[in-house]
Design brief:
With 81 residues, the protein is of the alpha+beta class. The chain has a domain of 52 residues. Helices cover 44% and strands 21% of the residues. A four-stranded mixed sheet has the order 2-1-3-4. Strand 1, helix 1 and strand 2 form a beta-alpha-beta unit. Helix 1 packs parallel to helix 3. The radius of gyration is 12 Å and the shape is globular.
């Protein structure tokens, strides 16, 4: 897998927690860079600048944003399962 994966999230978001649980289940926590937008202003700015909105969870796949927790979980499952 040669894709750069960055997950933009914050801890209290239930949809983000759904994605994080899926990552733990797949054992891929070390394969995705986590960017907490409430703790990292640069990450929050990048999310809005590139993605056009401050919506999480957002998985950047080689710099291209993917939204919606269900879509992200399906993508990660297909990629790593």
């Amino acid at each position: 897998m040669n894709k750069q994966l960055d997950l933009y999230y914050y801890d209290s978001c239930p949809y983000c927690q759904k994605v994080l649980r899926a990552m733990r289940k797949l054992g891929i926590e070390d394969k995705i860079t986590l960017k907490n937008i409430l703790q990292d202003q640069q990450a929050a700015d990048t999310l809005v600048r590139v993605g056009g909105k401050r919506q999480v969870p957002c998985l950047f796949i080689d710099g291209v944003p993917m939204y919606e927790s269900d879509d992200i979980v399906v993508y990660l499952t297909d990629l790593f399962a």
